[in-house]
Amino acid sequence: SSTVLAPRPAFSLAHEVVGSSSCASAEGVARLAMSFAVFQQLTQSQVVDGCLFCAFTSPQATNLVVSKGDHIEVWDVQKKQHKLSLVYSMPLFGRPEAIAAFRPSADGPDHLAIVLRRARYLAVLRHNPALGSARTCGQHLLLPPDDPASLSGPAGFKPQVVVDPAHRCLAVRVLPDRVLVFPVASGASWQHEAQPAVSKLGGLPFHADAEQPPCLGAPILLGNRSPLRLHHIQDIQFLHGYQAPTAVCLGQTKPAYGGCLNEANLCTSSILVFTLDLAERLPHLIWASHRLPHDILQIVPLHLPIGGMLALCSNAVIYMKEHGTSFCQTLNPCAALGGEIAQLKGIDIKDENSLEIQLTGCSVVVLSPTTLLFSVQPLGRLYCAHLVLETRDVVADIVWTSPGMASPASSMCSFGEEYVFLAASASAGGCSLLKMTPSRKKLPPNLQKHQPSKRARTAVPGQGEPERKEEDEAQAERKPSEKLAELLEAHQVLQDAGRHIRSYNFVVSDDFTTWGAIPCFSQWRRDKGEDEEDEEAAPLSGTERLIVCSGAGQRGSLYICQRAVPLDVLTEFDLPETTQFSAVWTFQQPLEEPMITESAPSAGVEDRVARAASAAVAATVATQASAVKHRLVLVSGVFKSMVLETTEEIEEISKATRIDTDATTVTAGSLLKDRLIVQVTPQRMCFVWASDPKAQVVPAPLVFETAERVPPLQACGGGVCDPYVVVRFHDFSLRLFAVCGEAECLELTSSLPAAVCTGVVCASLFRSHGGGKTFLVVLTSASQGTLRIVDLESMAEVFHTRHVLDVPPVLRNHGSGDAGCALDHLRALPDVCAALPRGTVEKVAKGLEGQQQAPGLEAQAAAADAAAASVAVCAELVEVDAEDCGPSLVLILVGRPILVYRPFIPSSDVEGEGAAFPCHFSIFEHDLLGLVERTPGGPHRAVAALRKAGGLPAGAVVIPPHTGIPALWLAARRNQLFFHPLPGAQLAGFSQLQAPCCGSGFFALSQPPGSDVVAAQVLAPSTASGLQGGGLQGAQSQPGFDLHWPLPVAIHVLKKTPHVMATQLEEGMVGLAVSDSVLEAAAPPGEDDNNDPLAEDWSIVRNPPVEFSPPPMPRTQPRFELWIDGAKDLAKLGRYRFTFDTGEHVLSMQWVALPGFPSPSLAVGTGVNIGEDLTCRGRILIFSTRDREPGVLPAIYQRALKWPVTAVGQHGNYFLHSEGFKLFFEKWENSNFNKLAFFDASMCVTAMASIKNFLLLGDLRKGLDFVQWKEENDGNTRTLKRLSRSPPSGFITVLACDFVVCGKSLGLVALDHTGTAHLYQYSPHSDGREGDQLLRSCATFSMGYPCRAALRLQTEAGVQCMFMASGGGELLCLKPIDDTVYRTVATLLGMLATRLPYRCGMNPRAFRHHEGPPALVAPRKNIEDAVLLRLFAFLSTPLQAGVAEK
Q1: What whole-number distance in Å separates Cα of residue 311 and Cα of residue 302?
Q2: CA-to-CA separations, 1096 to 1085, 1090, 1092, in angstroms, rounded
Q3: Among 327, 319, 166, 325, which Cα is nearest to 241's?
Q4: Which of residues 660 and 1303 earns the better pLDDT score?
Q5: Given 242, 432, 623, 1310, which residue has the most CB atoms within 10 angstroms?
């Protein structure tokens, strides 16, 4: 594996922001070619594309399934806490475009139906509880390769999956002209029922698992022409309350043209309702409604007992039902435009225009049969639509109420009447889980039903008042019958329905603050202390920072992020050079003075140990309620240990303590409620009082070996967990002790299972934060590494799994009785649940039989011990967060990255005998791929657990056994793990330190590269002035960085929508353009000629060619502001501000230092687009805060133009800006800008980048122009010359562009609106393929989301990469590699793509292929995916070896 992993540049993350080291040699850098590159996804998508509630993990579960980019997350709703907890995340080499859940059997869990890759494939997934992942049950090819639509589907089309309410079938809207209906049946398979007609138009099944059928039959094709007779299909849904599956289809009878309300475009929508005969495979039309408004957006089926549907228009809603009265309710005055509502036949019109609700782009979810929840754009206000009933199933009217504001939602889903999940739109970012509480609202008086007055009671002759009173009392005492109770309940319901409507109160029970679409990002300066030297950080240390703007409205924020965990060095001092120190422990102060009592002599050993363990548990709980400080620090090296006392200062007290300072400390910890400190050396255990470390009266040391032996028995590892101490020896044996009192140390080794005492290569102890059971974790050499977990309370083995050294993707309890556990090391990480090949299973079985019959088992065991000891470094359980479902397993092996296994709890039917320890483990794939090269050369503490102030888990730090690779910080929230490297790669030891000298900080050992001196450092979490954040320990007392993000971030909330940003690092300045929504003015478009600086320009069209009248309801539009301030305190951002004109958008921004202007100055380009018939205007403005007081900041220069200014910049002393399709070079002379040169682009310049005297211009439609600026020495001749351009065979809308550099080579990258990266290379002489003066097309690579922000950063000497931020909140990188590395990587990825199974049957390489109209010249494929390449590092050894052999 190390041979294949040798080309490290393919794995290394590309910049300090990413924080991993690149191992490319100087010779390799010189040979890098620009025609090859590698794509790296630094963070996953944060934007939710789709969501739904279902019972996926079990029939009784409440699961939330969300689709984010190229992965699917399954969450569980914790109903007691009303919080979400991550079950698992499934990476897919495909982007789900539609998702739905169906239930094949009434008593079984739900399956997921997923549509992928432009509606070409339908995949079915079901949960596999034994493996803690999803299994692919089958895939169906929806569009055959010979279908013309498979090459390039309609632009902007989104497929749709809907399920019948009774789960009898599901429908997939594949294209606007076809729908496929799949019958649902338990055990059904579409492959067995495929027909020739299906393969021609409906697709082909290409995979099915006989043991796990998809439960879907062969599809039924519904075309737009036959049998539906529509021009195209807009929406399809299933109605409730029908005996057979009944679908409603919304479509257009003829093509319509947007923006033109003429007679041909009006009343073009039709709704068809038809039943599906699944036996005859034919639809039967029930009823239809034609000549409906053209702007119907979607159909919302209503639940029983009401039934029917709501048709949502932009300005109205239409209630329709087969039997009953239909009506249309107008919601704003714009509903009368076009007269379509007035032309509705047989539908009553209800005027509610005063509501002024617009439903364009809204999201809707049904909460109950009479209540719907809407989220309207663009502000995100929530509305509840209450259906007022006339009878039990007839709707008379709709009442609208607003429960409040939220982020504008792109999708919503509900779980009964308990929860609503609101997924914010891509621009806003973030998600919210809303808890619903039923309530009642009184109906308006005009809608209350007439209630009959109570009839007076007449007296019965012969009965008087006393008799009647006695009869009433007897009737009250008599229990009503069941029938009477039902009638009374129905009466109460009807009475309430006549006076009240059912409503809900919403409370945000869980909120996800994440990145949305990232419009721009830039480099950011790091805060430096007063005493900090102005030295450059170590290369690739991960401390470079980015500033990212994202969100919309109230969620608009700035994020300061960096790749490594932000830490500040408070104190640093060198340790003695005579010893190589490499491990550190810190010890807490006890809660009270030491008071040790002897255990009762009559008590047995088990009782005394149990009593001591209970006392330790009680001490753990008491510690959580108090702020415990650390006082002592124990530093260990080869043949040397040191004791430091931390108060206001740090002082060495080694000689004054009973610690053995002349020996290596193997492990250490606290015992007896933190009162006693134990030091384990190779020969003995020493004890020191924590409250008085200088005390000479301490418990006597415990010597491990009293008899002489050669070689002497020496301890080489272990762990401490009050009251237990486990010690591992160099002869692979193990001993367990329990310290129950001052002079009582009991050995419990004989009580342990025999299997955990021999062949031990790693041993540790674990106890959860709640003070639960204590577990012994042992890794033995048997069976390629066997992990055993023993409950020390019962001394019983509760978990064991084999083949750990082979790095299986899952670690399951082999004692659970599942026969498949023995083959887990043969499972493929991309699809753990895929069926194993029969030949592989038989081969492994024969190999096991041969091993059992082979002679010399003892010699083989000895060899296995030595081999395992040379590979295994650590196997330790650690609790990362209190909300995790169990502890995580940290595994460090030579030749592998640091491995972390996350826990999952299988269902009860597969737990078996391991119920005492219910967790199984699955590997967590991360992108920090520094390989462990060797075992530690001295003492090593691999895992340092971190605690909050209250004692709860706050993460963990994993320290590698040698320097050269970064240590890792583990953080978790909602059972979701986050990985972050620590700065640099020289960390040798790390421990938490809460002391007066540092507050809540850390103690670390650092060894600089090439130095033999180890430095001790006292670290503290970094803070970002003026920014919010939880800090590393989760405290809210001071601003800091939150580690529960893809990158450590500090947040500054803007409460406005950010658009464009520019930073100036030297002076520490930032300029930011933000906007908020306002109502447009009632005045007609156009400017006042008296104030128009271009009033004399006759070519500007100021008035529309048609008669203009204001819209009936004012529309919202953004109003832009410019904020400028320094970087020292972003909380004051906005002190210097400027408000732009109404309708004026900020399009470009750049800091410049021009002669004649204060330095630095901010150049801003704007644009005003009032309508397609009017001239698009723009302005150039220059601002400066020099000698200005905070407040409104006027522009020191501005110029009005009749073109939008989409790019501004500076080249030398020249000012660059674009005006439409022209680029100008200007110079400030005589108090004005003089144009020196210009360049005519194609349509409109959308992006600009420069390097030296070369410019790269992106166009709105025509791709790239590569331009050279030349100025003669005399200064009189200046030219802009086009050197080359992108091939004109295909249209490319460029959103961003930049260069990638390696040495003297130059690569040109264009990012288009489809999320594709185009890599070009300039060659002065054509190779005959593209043609003369055309850029050489090196690759087109599909990234997924479109990217508007790009940043070129230097990663190493002579190499500059391109960083990108996408519309899905991803951070991406494009890095050049040389041809040798590229060929190795391409070969490896080719084998990985063909030899491994993948979820949903996807091809990981085809996932990155650009899909679009075929080009005249097919582009080369010289960009490879590092996401797939990263997979190789985490493959199990058998699969990795099989690939490496090829």
Answers
A1: 11
A2: 18, 11, 9
A3: 166
A4: 660
A5: 1310
Q: Give yes or no for a contact between 976 and 984, defined as CB atoms under 8 angstroms apart.
A: no
- The 10s digit of each residue's pLDDT in 621-630 is 555 445 568 8
Within a 13 Å sphere around the CA of 482, how many CA atoms are in the beta-carbon half?
Answer: 0
Q: Are 963 and 970 in contact (CB under 8 A)?
A: no
Rounded to whole angstroms, the Cα distance separating 298 from 802 reads 54
Statement: residue 458 has pLDDT above 50: no
Maximal C-alpha separation, the chain: 129
Q: Under 8 Å CB-to-CB from 1323, ≥6 apart: which residues?
A: 1336
Contact indicator for 581, 988 with CB cutoff of 8 Å: yes
pLDDT band at 29 (very low <50, low <70, confident <90, very high): very low
Cα–Cα distance, 1391 to 1343 (Å, whole number): 22
pLDDT of residue 583 exceeding 90:
yes
What is the secondary structure of 274-306 as a DSSP string?
A: EEEETTTTEEEEEEEEEEE-TT--EEEEPPTTT
Residue 51: exposure state from Cβ atoms within 10 A (0-12, 13-18, ≥19): buried
Number of neighbours of residue 20 by Cβ within 10 angstroms? 24
Which amino acid would we find at residue 708? E
CA distance 993 to 138: 53
Cis peptide before 333, with omega less than 30 degrees from 0?
no
In this structure, the strands spanning 37-41 and 1423-1425 are parallel
Contacts of residue 1229, defined as CB under 8 A and 6 or more positions apart, other chains included, come to: none
pLDDT score recorded for residue 1032: 52
**CA 1368 to CA 1038: how far, in whole Å?**
30
Q: In this predicted model, which residue has the larger pLDDT, 483 or 1371?
A: 1371
**Using one digit for the tens of pLDDT, what is the confidence trace for 1058-1107?**
999 999 988 889 999 999 988 887 655 445 556 777 777 778 888 888 77
Reported confidence tier of residue 840, pLDDT bands at 50, 70, 90: low
More confident residue, 206 or 1233: 1233
**Per-residue pLDDT averaged across 407-414, rounded?**
92
Hey, what are 715's tokens? 């301890």
Which pLDDT score, from 0 to 100, does residue 1374 have?
Answer: 93
Q: What is the dihedral of CA 1299, 1300, 1305, 1310, to 10 degrees?
A: -50
Each as own residue / partner, the long-range contacts of residues 826-830 (CB below 8 Å, 24 or more positions apart, any chain) are: 826/1436, 826/1438, 826/1439, 827/131, 827/1436, 828/1396, 828/1397, 828/1435, 828/1439, 829/923, 829/925, 829/1396, 829/1431, 829/1434, 829/1435, 829/1436, 830/91, 830/93, 830/1396, 830/1397, 830/1398, 830/1399, 830/1404, 830/1431
CB 1182 within 8 A of CB 1163: yes
Show Cβ contacts of residue 385 under 8 Å, excluding neighbours closer than 6 positions. Answer: 310, 317, 371, 372, 373, 374, 398, 399, 400
Q: What is the token pair recorded at 1384?
A: 């190795």
Best CA proximity match to 214, nearest among 129, 102, 116? 102
Over the range 686-715, which residues count as b (16 or more CB within 10 Å of their CB) and which as e? bbbbbeebeeeebbeebebeeeeeeeeeeb
Q: What does the pLDDT read at residue 750?
A: 92
| Gap between the Cα atoms of 681 and 967, Å rounded | 25
Predicted confidence (pLDDT) per residue in 930-945, tens digit:
899 999 989 999 999 9
Are 309 and 273 within 8 A, CB to CB?
A: no
For 350, counting Cβ atoms within 10 Å of its Cβ (0-12 exposed, 13-18 middle, 19+ buried), the class is middle
- Is the peptide bond prior to 723 cis by the omega test (within 30 degrees of 0)? yes
> DSSP secondary-structure letter at 978?
E
How many angstroms from the chain centroid is the CA of residue 648?
42
Exposed/middle/buried for 215, CB within 10 Å: 0-12, 13-18, 19+?
Answer: buried
Indicate the burial class of 1164 (C-beta count within 10 angstroms; 0-12, 13-18, 19 or more): buried
CA gap 970, 977 in Å, rounded: 7
Given a contact cutoff of 8 angstroms between Cβ atoms, the answer to whether 1251 and 1263 are in contact is no
Cβ-count burial 891-928 (b if 16+ within 10 Å, e if not): bbbbbbbbbbbbbbebeeebbeebebbbbbbbbbbbbb
